[in-house]
Structure formats: C-alpha cells, structure tokens
Amino acid sequence: MREVAEFVRKSVAAGHSARVGRVVAFKGFGGRRAGEAIVLTEDGSSAGQLLGGIADDAIAASAGEGPAELVEVAVGDTDAVAAGLACGGVATVLSSEVAALPEALWSALAADMPVALVTRPDWAAAPGALVLVDDATTGQLERYGSVGDADLDELAETAARGALRRGSDSTEVLVTQGVRFVVEGYFPTTTLVVVGEGSLAEALVAQGGMLSWSVAIESEWHDQADARIRALGRADALVVLSHDHELGTAALAAGLASSCYLGALGSRHTQERRRGHLAARGVAAEELDRIHGPVGLDLGARTPEETAVSIVAEILAHRSGRRPGALSATTGPING
C-alpha cells in the first residue's frame, strides 16, 4: 500500500476515480508479503500488482460492486509458478473504492507513518472504513473515518490498535458482534540499531539486509545516537551488544523512551548489572521487563551468524505476538 500511496494522491488530485486492491488472506502460495497493492483508475492507468499480476483482473472485475468487496481468487500451481510464486493457492482480495477510504490514509502512508485501516466490506454505504494513524508529529494516535456507527467505530479502533501493536505489516479478517471487518496494518521500513562492534554486529547487518531492514551500528555515545534511538517506533529494534556499561545503560535508557523492541547481549549476571544501573537512574521495574536479555531465541546458536539468526527470530516473534515453537507442533495457520 505504501508504494501506491503517491500514485493514489495524484489520481485523486486529477479528479480520477479509482479502486485499490490488496490480498488480505491466503492459503498456499508458499507465503506472501503483506502490503502488496494495486490501484486501477477509471482512465486505465495503474500502479502496483498482486500475486505477480495474477489477481489484478479481480480488481477490474469488482468495479461497481460497492465501496468495498471481498473477492476469492484461486490460482493453480502452473499459473502460480509462471508468475514467480512457489505454488498455487486461494487468495482473499479486498477491493475498495479510493473515495470510500479516508484521505488521511494516503497522506500518512506517503509520510511513512504507521497506519491501521479497518474496512467493513459488507456495508453498502460509504464511508465504511476507519483509519488509525500513529502520528509522529503529534505523538498521538489520530482516528479518521467511520465504519457506520459509534459503537462499531469503537470496536474497529480496538482492532486497529491491535494491528499497530504488532509493529509489522499485517492483514486479518475477523468477525465481531456479527460484523465482518478487514484489519490491515502498514509500517515503514524496520530500523535496527546495534550498539557495539565486532563479528556479531556485522552478522546482524547481514541478517537485517536480507529482510530489507535499515541497520545502523553505534559504537560510541553521542547526541545523534541518543536522538536516533529515542525516535525508534513499534516496527523498530534496538540490540545492545557492548559490555561497556556506560554505553549500554545510556542506549537502553534511550530505548526505553521509545516503543521499539529492546534486546541486550550478555550473561544473566550481566543482565542484572544492567538492570541495576537502569534502576539507579529511576527506571521502574515494569519498564525493565521490556528488555529481552539475554537476547535471542534458544536455538543452540554458537557462531556470530547463528546468534544473529536467533536475535532476529526473537524480534520477529515479538512483533507478531507469537510464542516461538516448531510449526509441526501447532495446528494454526503457518503463514503468519
């Protein structure tokens, strides 16, 4: 959605009507990234694509079907592989009239602000969508639009807040009090700040790069480092590797002033010393509990590269609200 936001804004400014489609649920395909979107305007121009282009026609076919429409798209293995997908599957595509979505959605996406969008696809009237923006300029969650009435708006806002707590792009179709909602969360690129140097820091840069994260290494304390860490959001992470207690304590104190994931390398004894230094600064016990230390999942990691995998895996599990475990031991969906 973020990639098509500027296109939508220009289309609206030019007076064109348009529909935007995105995959909100799927089975199969070998997994897909959340956030893919396509926009089709009345004059035939477009931006973005869905499932390698396979689902694009479903958006064109939904024109005139109402403010928002859920469409099922089934793709066979042969067509899926030809489009660059791992295998076939069934996708649920949400097609919405751009005019039925709050204008603040596109402004917030273009400005790289975290956004949650709740759509009521079974609602024949417009508007039928509510947007919650984590506004960096005000420091507040700003609400725009409506899903029909005040009581349902409160339910929609609760669902939107849940999406924003995840800290990563997500989609969910849910039914509450007999009303179906589609809940989407969109976040800017994840920033990972690593405090410390060495082979593990380099391995974290490599791991973050594979996920298209922005990774910054801080090896000493200065005002710019403090400001960078305090500006981290829900989608971001801070990992302290340094055993320099002044540097580590300053970094963690700055991280606790943000909403990001916090991790710290070191033995359990080292963790207690860090907690003591932070407590001496007046940090409350419940705030100290936000720190994941020793950082990382218990994967039996030994090398810097393996340890980086365990750290990044814990960040992903934390953001998704999952308790890590083997997929073979679970019964729920395997793609998020």
User: How much β-strand is present in the residues?
Assistant: 25-35%
Distance between the termini: 19 Å
- Helical residue percent band: 25-40%
Alpha-beta content class: alpha/beta
Order of neighbouring strands in the sheet with most strands: 3-2-1-5-4
Instruction: Estimate the global geometry from the Cα principal axes.
Output: globular
Low-confidence segments:
none
Give a summary of the structure in a few sentences:
This protein is an alpha/beta fold and 336 residues long. It contains 11 helices and 15 strands.
Any key phrases for this structure?
single chain, 336 residues, alpha/beta, five-stranded antiparallel sheet, 11 helices, 26% strand
Question: Would you kindly provide a written description of the structure presented here, covering whatever features stand out?
Answer:
The chain contains 11 helices and 15 strands. The strands form 3 sheets. A 5-stranded antiparallel sheet has the order 3-2-1-5-4. Helix 1 crosses helix 4, helix 6 packs across helix 11 and helix 7 runs parallel beside helix 8. The relative contact order is 0.09. The model has no long low-confidence stretch (mean pLDDT 89).
